[in-house]
From TrEMBL:
Molecular function GO terms recorded: cytokinin dehydrogenase activity; FAD binding
Residues in FAD-binding PCMH-type domain copies: 48-226
Catalytic reaction list: N(6)-dimethylallyladenine + A + H2O = 3-methyl-2-butenal + adenine + AH2
Protein name listed in UniProt: cytokinin dehydrogenase
GO biological process, alphabetically ordered: cytokinin metabolic process
Length: 317
């Protein structure tokens, strides 16, 4: 048995050196790293750690296409897998490629974002861009994406491969319903533009496709006017039925909030004490109601956009 293991180890190391040599021979503008790739074996779950053989740091979309064409030509017998990695904030090794090739999409970020400020505004962005950067750039134009995630240090390609859900989804749908067009590198290494009208199967496969139907390299994101002011409210409930009834009422009402999200909280961590600062300090009765350590609470987080001249009436609204 040790002999077999030893042979396997020699065979694997020969494969790696062949792979390294063949990847080094590719004409690309970015780089491959073969050492120091531990970051590509980590994710937010921190449970699964598969080291890839190589990480591609692309400078151009053509670097990704060239690499995937090369893997395609090696054929399925190579057993080589390829995974795109955004910000690595998924779980269970989703963005990892055991002994394969990880594509570090963030090295494609920082490219110019191209705005169309017409009747239906949009922005064209690199899929390796973080949503937080897109927000900052959009605000310079008085615009903002319609649909968000709660946390914004995630890449466009990463959230579009899942769904991208937050408190705007009840109104606009998740992020994958607010994309007009994608540029995708397919499993054969072709660069294809797709939308509802053009290569629709690829478009719908890639959106929410967990990185299994191609590598998203660019996305056209739907925008709207950014609000100038926002009223933010948290409402705590101890009774689930009341919480759920209120949430259903609010998401189905016509004139309602702009953001509605429901949360379940186990009040073990002093979270509610911390949140108490968001209650009106002139209302001590309200602020002291939730001395509920260890209990399950339910929270509605709500926002309403308003214009500066509506500031006096927004509380009543
Ligand atoms: C603190 C935190 C808060 C979160 N909040 C929310 C939230 O409010 N709403 C929500 O919907 N989700 C939320 N998530 C989940 C998060 O949106 C997903 O895990 C998302 O995939 C992470 O994006 P990423 O850039 O880190 O992608 P990665 O983890 O790097 O990749 C995730 C998957 O997408 C694939 N992928 C990455 N880039 C591309 C690409 N360009 N083309 C094709 N496939 C690609 C990967 O191969 C992998 O399968 C949260 C996660 C964390 C850690």
């Amino acid at each position: 048995m040790p002999l077999i293991l030893c042979c396997m180890a020699i065979k694997l190391s020969l494969c790696f050196s062949n792979l390294e040599a063949s990847l080094r021979s590719l004409h690309i503008q970015g780089t491959f790293s073969f050492d120091g790739n531990e970051f590509a074996a980590r994710d937010f779950g921190n449970q699964i750690h598969f080291l890839p053989s190589a990480v591609l740091h692309p400078k151009k979309v053509s670097d990704i296409a060239t690499t995937i064409q090369h893997v395609w030509q090696m054929g399925s017998a190579s057993g080589l897998t390829v995974a795109a990695r955004g910000h690595g904030h998924s779980l269970q090794g989703q963005a990892q490629a055991p002994q394969g090739i990880v594509i570090n999409m963030e090295s494609l970020s920082g490219k110019e974002m191209i705005f169309d400020k017409g009747t239906f505004p949009f922005v064209d962005v690199s899929a390796g861009e973080l949503w937080i950067n897109i927000l900052h750039e959009c605000l310079k134009h008085g615009l903002a994406p319609k649909s968000w995630t709660d946390y914004l240090h995630l890449t466009v390609g990463g959230t579009l491969s899942n769904a991208g859900i937050s408190g705007q989804a009840f109104r606009h749908g998740p992020q994958i319903s607010n994309v007009h067009q994608l540029e995708v590198v397919t499993g054969k290494g072709e660069v294809v533009v797709c939308s509802e009208e053009q290569n629709a199967d690829l478009f719908h496969g890639v959106l929410g496709g967990l990185g299994q139907f191609g590598i998203i390299t660019k996305a056209r994101i739907a925008l709207e006017s950014a609000p100038t002011a926002v009223k933010w409210i948290r409402v705590l409930y101890s009774d689930f039925s009341t919480f759920a009834r209120d949430q259903e009422l609010l998401i189905s009402a016509e004139n309602t909030f702009d953001y509605i999200e429901g949360l379940v909280i186990i009040n073990k961590t002093g979270l509610v004490n911390y949140w108490r600062s968001s209650f009106n300090p002139q209302d001590p009765t309200q602020a002291s109601r939730f001395t509920s350590d260890g209990k399950t609470l339910f929270c509605l987080e709500l926002t309403k956009n308003f214009k500066p001249h509506e500031a006096d009436t927004i509380d009543m609204v």
